[in-house]
Amino acid sequence: MTENKRPLALLFDIGGVCVASPFQAILDYERANNIPVGWVNFAISRTSPNGSWHKLERGEIKLDADFFAAFNRDLRHPKLWQQFHERLQKRKQPENTSTTVPPLPKIDAESLFWEMMRVSRTPDPYMFPALKKLKASGQFLIGALSNTVIFPDGHPYNEDEPNGVKAQFDFFVSSAHTGLRKPDPNIYAFALKEVNRVAKARGVQNVAPSDVLFLDDIGENLKAAKKAGIRTLKVVLGKTQDTVRELEQITGLKLLESEEKARL
Q1: CATH number for the domain including 225?
Q2: Sorted alphabetically, which SUPFAM superfamilies does this protein's record hold (predicted)?
Q3: Which of 100, 118, 136 is the last residue of a domain?
Q4: 106 is a domain residue
Q5: 212 beta partners
Q6: Any idea what DSSP says for residue 171?
């Protein structure tokens, strides 16, 4: 952060920022099942923009058996696996010219998915208390900008979140409900309109993109926000405490609880 101007609005990603990161669930799954670390994220990112994961997060397909079958196929894509393995080998042994590719790892996409969803329902011990303090201060517009999924009718995850994260936001921009997904430039334009809609209702006119600070854990999403003129703050996996310290400097508020209290 180089800007000194105090933001008027704060935009938060959810997974990996306000709640535990689904990336941690992926990492734990890969390690537990002897899958090369990074393969799942590589497969998901390289099937963009029309992979099963991306369609689900845009609300184009349902979260059902067909999705899990398609997700399994994306995670067993032979050409992507070859590309990933070649990159892995070059990183480990740059001079190795071997083209032997090991068998595709077996992944239970449905089990992995639900573990990601389960893990990401746990509030972050540092960011969530900070979020509540920011909300209680009444000094900022607080919004969410998150890539999301729509759970099946009747699923318990459709009920109000027991952790109360969503209650902290003045508005919530959900990819699965808008049909737009980060890093699509259009979702940032949509979010800026929401900022100004809420601001106008509070008597604040013309909130510029530079008046908005966006927190996310994915570099690609932050780059797209910067292109839209939005200020950004990177959240590093396992280091949300450091991010809260930065937020204290940016907002001028005391946000970080004692380490002992945060662990409770």
Answers
A1: 3.40.50.1000
A2: HAD-like
A3: 118
A4: yes
A5: 9
A6: E
**What's the angle, vertex CA 26, arms to CA 22 and CA 28, rounded to 5?**
110
In Å, how far from its chain's centre is CA 73?
A: 23
Count of structural domains, the chain: 2
Identify whether residues 94 and 151 lie together within a single domain: no
Residues 128 and 234 in one domain: yes
pLDDT at 261: 53
Q: Which helix (H) or strand (E) holds 11?
A: strand 9-12
Of 49, 84, 118, the residue that ends a domain is: 118
Give pairs for 36-40: CB < 8 Å, separation 24+: 36/84, 36/85, 36/88, 36/105, 38/84, 38/88, 39/75, 39/81, 39/84, 39/105, 40/75, 40/107, 40/112
Which residues is 10 bridged to in the sheet?
Answer: 142, 213
Q: Which pair of tokens denotes residue 37?
A: 């670390």
Residue 92: predicted pLDDT = 75
Q: What is the pTM of this model?
A: 0.91
Determine the pLDDT at residue 164.
Answer: 86
Predicted local confidence at residue 30, as pLDDT: 97
94 plus 126 within the same structural domain: no
Indicate if 55 and 76 belong to the same structural domain: yes
Which residues face 145 on adjacent strands?
173
Alpha-carbon dihedral angle through residues 160, 165, 171, 172, given to the nearest 10 degrees: -80
For residue 139, is pLDDT > 60? yes
Q: Are residues 39 and 85 in the same domain?
A: yes
Tell me the residue range of the domain where 78 lies.
Answer: 23-118
Alpha helices, DSSP H, located in the chain:
22-32, 39-46, 52-57, 65-74, 78-92, 109-119, 127-137, 175-178, 185-201, 219-227, 240-251, 259-263
